[in-house]
Structure formats: structure tokens, C-alpha cells
Specification:
The complex is a heterodimer of chains A (437) and B (443).
Chain A lengths: L4 E4 L3 H12 L4 E4 L3 H8 L10 H11 L2 E4 L2 H7 L2 E4 L15 H10 L7 E5 L7 H12 L6 E5 L9 H6 L4 E4 L3 H11 L7 E4 L1 H32 L3 H9 L20 H14 L7 H24 L8 E5 L14 H11 L3 E5 L4 H7 L4 E2 L3 H5 L4 E4 L4 H4 L3 H7 L4 E4 L6 H6 L3 E4 L4
Helix pairs in contact in A: 1-3, 9-10, 9-11, 9-12, 11-12, 12-13
Chain B lengths: L8 E4 L3 H12 L4 E4 L3 H8 L10 H11 L2 E4 L2 H7 L2 E4 L15 H10 L7 E5 L7 H12 L6 E5 L9 H6 L4 E4 L3 H10 L1 H4 L5 E4 L1 H32 L3 H9 L20 H14 L8 H23 L8 E5 L14 H11 L3 E5 L4 H7 L4 E2 L3 H5 L4 E4 L4 H4 L3 H7 L4 E4 L6 H6 L3 E4 L4
Parallel strand pairs in B: 1-2, 1-4, 2-3, 4-5, 5-6, 7-8, 9-10, 9-12, 10-11, 12-13, 13-14
The chains are: A alpha/beta (437), B alpha/beta (443).
Chain lengths: 437, 443
């Protein structure tokens, strides 16, 4: 008989995992402690913007394979394999990750676990967490050592979460027994041929932090080159092109611009360094502090470029901002470089009007002091400078003549090196970008 | 394009880069004169001898000498007379006691050549230089050349990997042309016509960007190596396994498995010097903070060497003094005889300094090692140095070391203890054969 699965936590990761596992044919019961979230999900409504996910959710609600609950007791009774998918945000005022939601799930679930089962952590956690939770689980579960822990980190990219769940690059299984390995291999068997790395708890925990640390490092590497180009008169977009032909380097995540943001990369690298400090290995990750600083300096440089384009002062000047989400195809504004720049310019007296195809409502709720528009052209209307801060396709496709017709001055600062410089300069625009002459 | 249209080339400097470039360009059909100020080097090359280890190059030298398309000289006047395009391929070593690189050879080449340049020609820098050097040399050329502004400068960075230099020259990933005029671009295109005909991608850019490409590429590679070695340090602190970690990361094609092998870290004549010179130059132009992460990259890399020695010491019960240590490897990487800043020899010398009785073997770099470090002892094979050893340390991942059978080595050693500084061996096989096996970043 196939395993029955449960998913604890129905945020971005949990909702995706639950819907996708049901799509693979499993009976899935998902839990959240937030009653209103559960009611929305039962109606087939997603609290997040994720292409394709709502269809998967509705299809599996209709089929009856996917159900939602707020009861730990029901979950414990139902499930053979329990996936823990709660968030591990950055602690307020600290670099470390807050793992209290994880502890809460284990403490709530364990007392109901009275038969053989596997509890599988998917969240991104400081290394060492799994071992601690495994002990807690055995201590609190009536089934004792029959309730086993495994770690199986998630590797979802916002905007591609369904695909990344159903067609992953690889699956990492941090297990303490062959039984746990076999159960997880069975669970993921419907995915077909996917490379599987079987390892211990600490290695499995480290994979996600290490992967995000690498991506952040690669982004900041090319942005550091942009800083050098700005000082040396070079062109970082040509530098990046020349580097990307070297397949030891590769062009992925080598696009110079305003840098990274969102709910993962910044928090993960900070939590990683905090944990390394605790372990007495802080020197190993000291480079990640540089990575963070390079990233934050790009935002300051962007504000500087916009100021230069306006002749030195923002006071009372009209600034159009295109983009609020931390990246295109997302409504996520957590630690968004675009909003950070917009807010800073408003603080310096700029009259900011912002537009984003998906993140407008989130941006408005978080920063009501900014001006908002319903389209790029409306935001740019009467603007003395236009700032492209999130590289949505509809911004990349903007016609310089259309935009030129509504602005007060044809001045654009391209924070993502997304526009064709010749086209825009050819249309009479004063075009500026990070890391280019 | 007919032969008549091919520009005549000269190559100034016949070290590793210059000799490879001169020989390869002649093999493509160009008339090439190679110049060096060292008559000994010129004599060797003229007689068909390549003064360093590089697979495929001696054969190509013999062929091109025979074809008559390749000649060598010590005369700048002759080079200037011959060449339409002059490639500058001299070294830019690290200045003693400084992070900056020493540009005196580049300057000397320009000063030697320029006074003889009486007609329109292109001078092309290939050496790895601090950004801004090309602009300065361009001024120097115009000032010193009788042809004045008729002589133009371009930058065309080299991307050779030792052991693959011929292939990297004849079939590069890409060509970078740093130019200030369309004429210079056309001349470079003519000088690389057979390579461009292969469909090789070309990036045409300005002088500073072209200068930056090489240091940026090397900085990235150094960063990637130190990144996985930093993960090894974290693994050591947590009991995790950096090999599994690297494998899991490599499946992510935004990361990729190239240069993601944990181990003893990088060395050689390029990566360490290039990242230091880059950091130094960034300071000079006021953006030191942009690349201060490179100092961490360097520090991580150096710590791997001391960690390797720690592992040896731990295996020996805490004491190196008087212990017999077999070191496998001296070259900074396999398939090379280059021992510049070689991690292997650094480790061997430090253990020697701590009182260990060190013996070193390397398939290609023994002569270089012996000449530079006569205080160390050397053997004639892996088995020879391992005889009666208290511990074996694998420091350069030559294929012949990877293929050593634990049973065969067991026969000769005093104690079955091995530290694998390059993750080159199968841990389980060695442990099964009764060896105490230790590696960086693994339990």
C-alpha cells in the first residue's frame, strides 16, 4: 500500500509540496495552525503568486487526494511520512535563523505519533538542527525510536516551484537508517530518473545553505567586477559575456545589476555565517560578509546614479520606478532591492511613482508613503528620470518612443542591465547603468 | 583568405605563453618570429627544444621549425622589420615582498620594440596586467615609435591552462579583443582568421575590460575553489562530508561541478599572484573594498595547507618530529612540472621544518623541486618514497597516484596511514585494506 503523506506548514514551500505530492498520486493531508489559510486553500485559493500551482492545487482538491486540516492528531493518525515545511525566518535584530516554528511542529506532532513513521525536515536550517530534533522526536513520541527523522532539503525557485518539485535537479536524503532511505526513495520513485545523493544529517542540512551561499557569491562576484569597471572605465556587461564563455564559470547568475534580495539568499547567508560563528568556524565564511556588503552597496550605487542623472538632488523631482518585486515573475517583496531603492529615494525627497506587474498590492501595503501607478507608462508620466529596478519582461520590451512620449525628460537608469543600450541611446535617451561607461 | 593576406606576426617573450603562442600561430600558417632577450632560450627553441613541460608542444615546434614559418631572434630590429602584428607575451610575476605584479618586463618589451617601429603596425598585449596598463603603454608606444600614432595598441588576454595550452590556443572558448579603433579589430581578426573560421565567439570591447577579463576569470576560479574549501572547513566543524556536499551542489547547473573539488587548494604561477595583484590594483584605483573578498579567498586557500599538516600530525599521534613522511606530488597540479607556489611542496617543506623525515616523489616536477628545495629528500617512485614510511600524504592528484592499490602500498610502508589531500582515493577501499584514511572535510 502506498504511503500516506502529510505536510506540516502551508506557506510557499508547504503548499507547493502538498499539491505536487498529491499530483504524483499520493493521498496528502496538509496542516497549518492558521485556520483562515486552511479555509482559503480548501477553496483552491493560493496565498502566493506561483505560476501553475493553483491549477495543481484545484485538480487535486477535486480528486480528493489533497485535504487540509488544523489538527495534529488527525495528521499523526493519517500519515506514514510527515514533511515539515515551516519557515525559518531571520531573527529580529540578529543574523541567526529562527527555528522556533520547527520546534513547535515537532513538539505538537510528536505526542500523537504512536506508530512507525518518518518525519522529514525540508526547511532550511542551521547545521546541527536535525540531530537535535531527532532526539526531541524520539523523546516526545509514544512510538519512541519508531518515529524516525530524516532531512530532505528543498530547492525551489520562486516562479518555478512546481517544476522544481516535479523535475528536480537532484534529491538529497540525509538519513540515519536504511529504512529511512528506502521510504524516501519510494516516495520520490514516481519522479523517475533523478540523481539522489544519500548522506548524513549535517551534510543534508548544509546543501541548501551552501547552494544559496554559492549563488549569492556568484552574483556579488560580478557586481564587485561592476564596481571595478566603474572605477576603471570598463564595461561589466562585456566582461560578463567574456567570462560566461568559460564553462568553468558559466553565464548563470553572472548578470551584473542591483543584486539579490528576497526571502532566502540574504537571510540564508546571514544565518549561515551566524551558525559558523557558533561552531567556531566563523573565519571559513567571512567572505560571505563581503558578499552581503557588495550586494548592499549596489543599492546605494543605484541611488547615486539616479541622483547624478537628476543633477545631484532628488528634492521635489519626479522619479518613475519600474519594479517592486525582488525578482521578475514574483509578487515577493521581502528584502527587495527595488523597493529599498525606491524608499531611499523617497526619503531623500524624490517624488516616487512605482509600478510592478504583480507586487503592487504587497508594496502598497508595506510602503504606503510611495506613489503607485497601474502601468509602466502611467508611472513614467511626467517623470524626470525612469529607474528600471526589476527586470520583468514587460519592462525589457518597453518601446523607447512610447516611454519617451510620456516622460518629462528622456533619462533612464537601468538597474538590471536589461535594456539594449544602443536602441535607447539611439532614441535620444540619456541611458545609464551599473558598471558601464 | 590566401597566405599573401596573412599578417606577419612576432611574439615578444618566449616563456610559457610566448613559446606556445608563437608555435601555435606558425602551425596555423602564419610567418612568425619569436623574440627573447635570453640567447640561451632562443638557442634551445631554435634547436627544437621546449624549455618546459607541455604535452604536444615539442612535436608542434619540430613541425613548424621544419616548415620554415617559425624563426627565433634576440633582435628587436629584426622583429620590428618582420611584424605587422606584434604580440607581447612576457611575464608579469608578483613583485618580491609585494602583492602588486611586476610590469618591468612588459615595459622593457615596449621600450625595446617601439624605437624600431617605423611603419603602421599593431602591438597586442597578451600578458595578464593590472587594469589601466594598456592605456599607459599606448601612450608610451606613440611617444617612442618613429611611426608615432600609426602604431596602435590592442589587448587580447591569453586563457591558457597548463597541460592544455596547445588546445586552448588553437581552439579557445572565446577571443577577447580590446581595441580602440576598427582598424585594430580588423588586424586582430586577420591575425586569428583560422580560429575565427571555427566559429569561435569573439567579445570586442575596450582596453580596460579586456585587461580585466583574465584577472576576473582567475579570481572567479580561485573563489570557487576556496568556496568549496570553506565548506570543507564547515564540514570539519560539524561532522559533515564535503564530498557528498560537493556532489549535491554540482547537480545544480547554476553551480556546476567544475572547480568544485575540495582539497588542498590552488597554487601555481597564476591564480595566487593574479588575485593578489587584482586586490592591490583595486586598492590603487580606490575600490579595494570591491575585491576584499579575495583576501578571504587567499586565506581559506592557505589554511587548507596547514589543515593538511594537522591531519598528518593527528594520524601520527601528535608528533611530526623524526617521523618518516612520504609525499606524493610536488607540482602544483597534475600533468605539469610547475612548482611555483605549489601547495604540495609548501606542505612538504613545512613538515620538514617541523622535524619530519620527508621524502618526495613527483612524476614530472622532481628536477624543479630538487633545484629549488635541495633541503628535501627525493625518491624515484611512489613505492620508493613510501618504503618504511610512517605516513603517506597524497598532495598532487596525478593519475598514477590515483591508481595505486592499497594492498601494493601496504607491502612497503611501516604503518598503513594515509592523508589524501586531494580526495583522489576511494576512502572505503583504503579503509577496507586496513589503512587509516584521512581527508580534508570528511569524517
Amino acid at each position: 500500500m502506498p504511503y500516506r503523506l502529510t505536510v506540516l506548514g502551508t506557506g510557499y514551500l508547504g503548499a507547493t509540496h502538498a499539491a505536487c505530492m498529491a499530483e504524483l498520486g499520493f493521498e496528502v493531508l496538509a496542516l497549518d495552525v492558521d485556520q483562515s489559510k486552511i479555509e482559503r486553500l480548501r477553496r483552491g485559493e493560493l496565498p502566493i503568486h506561483e505560476p501553475g500551482l493553483e491549477e495543481v492545487l484545484r485538480r487535486n482538491l477535486d480528486s480528493g487526494r489533497l485535504r487540509f486540516t488544523t489538527s495534529y492528531e488527525e495528521v499523526a493518525k493519517f500519515g506514514d511520512v510527515h514533511f515539515v515545511c515551516v519557515g525559518t525566518p531571520q531573527k529580529k535584530g540578529e543574523r541567526a535563523a529562527d527555528v522556533s516554528y520547527l520546534d513547535a511542529v515537532v513538539e505538537s506532532l510528536a505526542p500523537y505519533l504512536d506508530r512507525e513513521c518518518l518525519v522529514v525536515g525540508k526547511s532550511t536550517v542551521p547545521v546541527g538542527t536535525a540531530e537535535r530534533l531527532a532526539d526531541k522526536l524520539v523523546r516526545l513520541a509514544p512510538a519512541g525510536a519508531q518515529a524516525e527523522l530524516a532531512w530532505n532539503p528543498e530547492f525551489l525557485r520562486e516562479g518555478f516551484a512546481v517544476r522544481d518539485t516535479l523535475q528536480p535537479d537532484r534529491i538529497v536524503l540525509g538519513v540515519a537508517s536504511e529504512r529511512a532511505e528506502k521510504i524516501l526513495r519510494d516516495v520520490y520513485a514516481p519522479l523517475g530518473e533523478v540523481p539522489i545523493v544519500v548522506t548524513d544529517f549535517p551534510t543534508a542540512e548544509l546543501v541548501k545553505s551552501a547552494a544559496n551561499a554559492f549563488l549569492a557569491t556568484k552574483i556579488s562576484f560580478i557586481n564587485a567586477m561592476a564596481e571595478v569597471c566603474e572605477a576603471a572605465g570598463g564595461d561589466v556587461t562585456q566582461l560578463s559575456a567574456a567570462l560566461s564563455y568559460d564553462d568553468r564559470i558559466g553565464g548563470r547568475y553572472l548578470n551584473p545589476g542591483l543584486g539579490f534580495g528576497g526571502g532566502c539568499l540574504p537571510k540564508d547567508i546571514r544565518a549561515f555565517t551566524a551558525r559558523a560563528d557558533e561552531l567556531g568556524a566563523g573565519h571559513a565564511l567571512a567572505f560571505l560578509r563581503e558578499v552581503d556588503e557588495i550586494n548592499l552597496r549596489r543599492r546605494a550605487r543605484m541611488v547615486g546614479l539616479a541622483g547624478e542623472a537628476l543633477g545631484g538632488s532628488f528634492g521635489g523631482r519626479r522619479v518613475a520606478v519600474l519594479g517592486a518585486a525582488f525578482k521578475p515573475n514574483s509578487d515577493d517583496i521581502r528584502d527587495s532591492p527595488a523597493l529599498d531603492v525606491a524608499v531611499k529615494i523617497a526619503e531623500l525627497g524624490g517624488l516616487v511613482t512605482l509600478y510592478d506587474p504583480a507586487a503592487l498590492a504587497n508594496a502598497r501595503a508595506a510602503h504606503p508613503q510611495l506613489g503607485y501607478a497601474e502601468s509602466a507608462l502611467e508611472a513614467a508620466s511626467g517623470a524626470e528620470v525612469v529607474l528600471l529596478l526589476t527586470e520583468w519582461q514587460e519592462f525589457v520590451a518597453l518601446d523607447p518612443e512610447d516611454l519617451g512620449a510620456v516622460v518629462a525628460a528622456r533619462v533612464i537608469v537601468d538597474g538590471r542591465n536589461a535594456l539594449d543600450v544602443e536602441t535607447w541611446r539611439g532614441a535620444g535617451w540619456d541611458y545609464r547603468a551599473l558598471g558601464r561607461p | 583568405m590566401s597566405d599573401a593576406e596573412l599578417p606577419r606576426l612576432t611574439v615578444i617573450g618566449t616563456g610559457y605563453l610566448g613559446a606556445t603562442h608563437a608555435i601555435c600561430m606558425a602551425s596555423l600558417g602564419y610567418d612568425v618570429v619569436g623574440l627573447d632577450v635570453d640567447p640561451g632560450k632562443i638557442r634551445k627553441l631554435q634547436s627544437g627544444e621546449v624549455p618546459f613541460f607541455e604535452p604536444g608542444l615539442p612535436e608542434l615546434l619540430a613541425k613548424t621549425l621544419e616548415s620554415g614559418r617559425l624563426r627565433f631572434t634576440t633582435s628587436y630590429a629584426e622583429a620590428a622589420e618582420h611584424g605587422d602584428v606584434h604580440f607581447i607575451c612576457v611575464g608579469t610575476p608578483q613583485q618580491p615582498g609585494l602583492d602588486a605584479c611586476d610590469l618591468s618586463y612588459v615595459d622593457a618589451a615596449v621600450r625595446g620594440l617601439a624605437p624600431h617601429l617605423t611603419r603602421r603596425c599593431l602591438v597586442v598585449g597578451k600578458s595578464t596586467v593590472p587594469v589601466g596598463t594598456a592605456a599607459r603603454l599606448s601612450g608610451l608606444l606613440t611617444e617612442l615609435a618613429p611611426a608615432g600614432a600609426e602604431v596602435e595598441l590592442a589587448w587580447n588576454p591569453e586563457f591558457l591552462r597548463e597541460g592544455f595550452a596547445v588546445d586552448d590556443t588553437l581552439r579557445p572558448d572565446r577571443l577577447v579583443f580590446g581595441v580602440t579603433t576598427e582598424w585594430a579589430r580588423e588586424r586582430l581578426a586577420a591575425a586569428f582568421a583560422p580560429i575565427l573560421d571555427l566559429g569561435t565567439p569573439t567579445v570586442v570591447t575596450d582596453l580596460p575590460t579586456a585587461e580585466l577579463v583574465k584577472v576576473a576569470a582567475n579570481s572567479f576560479l580561485a573563489t570557487k575553489i576556496s568556496y568549496i574549501n570553506a565548506m570543507a572547513e564547515i564540514c570539519e566543524a560539524t561532522g559533515a562530508d564535503v564530498r557528498d556536499l560537493a556532489q549535491a551542489l554540482a547537480y545544480d547547473d547554476r553551480i556546476g561541478g567544475r572547480f568544485l573539488q575540495p582539497g588542498l587548494g590552488f597554487g601555481g604561477g597564476c591564480l595566487p599572484k593574479d588575485i593578489r595583484a587584482f586586490a592591490y590594483r583595486a586598492e590603487e584605483i580606490g575600490v579595494g573594498q570591491a575585491v576584499s573578498f579575495l583576501r578571504e579567498v587567499d586565506a581559506i586557500n592557505r589554511r587548507r595547507r596547514s589543515r593538511t599538516i594537522d591531519l598528518v600530525r593527528e594520524l601520527l599521534g601528535g608528533q611530526l618530529n623524526g617521523q618518516r613522511v612520504a609525499c606524493l606530488g610536488a607540482a602544483f597540479k597534475p600533468n605539469s612540472d610547475d612548482i611555483r607556489d605549489a601547495p604540495a611542496l609548501d606542505v612538504a617543506r613545512t613538515m620538514h621544518g617541523l622535524g619530519a623525515n620527508v621524502r618526495v616523489y613527483d612524476p614530472a616536477a622532481l628536477d624543479n623541486a630538487r633545484r629549488t628545495y635541495p633541503e628535501l629528500r627525493y625518491g624515484t617512485s611512489a613505492m620508493d618514497v613510501a618504503r618504511d614510511a610512517d605516513v603517506v600524504v597524497l598532495l598532487t592528484e596525478w593519475a598514477e597516484f590515483r591508481e595505486i592499490q592499497p594492498e601494493a602500498l601496504s607491502e612497503v610502508v611501516a604503518h598503513r596511514r594515509i592523508v589524501d589531500g586531494r580526495h583522489a582515493l576511494d576512502r572505503d577501499a583504503w579503509r577496507a585494506a586496513g589503512w587509516e584514511y584521512r581527508a580534508l572535510g570528511r569524517p
